[in-house]
Amino acid sequence: TGDNEKCRKYAKDAKEKLAKSNKADLLRADDLLELAKDKDDKKSDSDN
Fold it and tell me: Ramachandran region of residue 15, left (φ > 0), alpha (ψ -120 to 50) or beta?
């Protein structure tokens, strides 16, 4: 049963790490989208 506990803890840690890194990636994606939007805004400004 000791091994089973170890496995469970390892799986939980791995899941949490994955969730954290996914969140970080999502935040990074949001930042990139914001940057892209800013660029588009500037482009449309210069068109006028």
Answer: alpha
CA atoms within 13 A on the CB side of 26: 6
More confident residue, 30 or 45: 30
Global confidence as pTM: 0.52
Measured in whole angstroms, how far is the alpha carbon of residue 11 from the centre of its chain?
A: 20
Instruction: Tokens for 28, please give them.
Output: 């990074």
* pLDDT the model gives residue 48: 57
Question: Which two structure tokens, joined as six digits, stand for 7?
Answer: 């496995």
